[in-house]
Amino acid sequence: MNSERVVLVTGGNRGIGRAIAERFVRDGYRVAVTARSGEGPEGTLTVRADVTDAAAIDAAFTEVENTLGPVEVVVANAGITKDTLLMRMSEDDFDSVVATNLGGTFRVVKRASKGMLRARFGRVILISSVVGLYGSAGQVNYAASKSALVGFARSLTRELGARGITTNVVAPGFIDTDMTAELPEETQKQYKASIPAARFATPDEVAGVVTWLAGDDAAYISGAVIPVDGGLGMGH
């Protein structure tokens, strides 16, 4: 039963993370979200955590475990961007993005795997980006951190696949969020022209794929990269 499963979504207070948390609530899961500030959607437990801090992650998991029960589904969604061309990219621009997007995933999934191994059940879902495999000028740091999640998921599949634990990557393309809404109309037009579906995705279209991966129908899928990008990446 889904209603007995506990889900933790990192960065679940806004954007795609929030939509994912809302969808899990709607589907009857018990849902917790991590947030550095703000609150998760109605019906979720919000815990404070910075994914670059292993002690904070441990404390957040302990709080979720004590309140809801062991985490059986983890969605590593928290991420940041610091876009600039390589020639102008500072050490901090690179290191902080990798520490959050890749290092944060490592810390969260490592902590989650303890309970999953005990239960011999788990769903690890990593939120990457079409940019991870397609590339994007001005995003060397972000693209590198997001493409690294593929190697992470496939290695973890080899480690934990026999224990009832799956690890998969969801790679969204352009999504209708506050961030894309701020783009100039001309830029939005150009982006849409390169997408075969000719539109941006809704956050809920990403959330639907994530909840499907968490369910029983996807029990034999692991190490996969599932694009939700309207055909933009097309095999990348």
UniProtKB/TrEMBL annotation:
Top-level taxon of origin: Bacteria
Keyword field contains Iron-sulfur: no
Similarity comment text for this entry: Belongs to the short-chain dehydrogenases/reductases (SDR) family.
Classification via CDD domains: BKR_SDR_c
Name of the protein in its database record: Beta-ketoacyl-ACP reductase
Start and end residues of each Ketoreductase domain: 5-178
SUPFAM superfamilies hit by this protein: NAD(P)-binding Rossmann-fold domains
Keyword Oxidoreductase: yes
NCBIfam families in alphabetical order: PRK12826.1-2
InterPro entries in alphabetical order: KR_dom, NAD(P)-bd_dom_sf, SDR, SDR_fam
Annotated keywords: Oxidoreductase
Any one GO molecular-function label of the UniProt entry: oxidoreductase activity
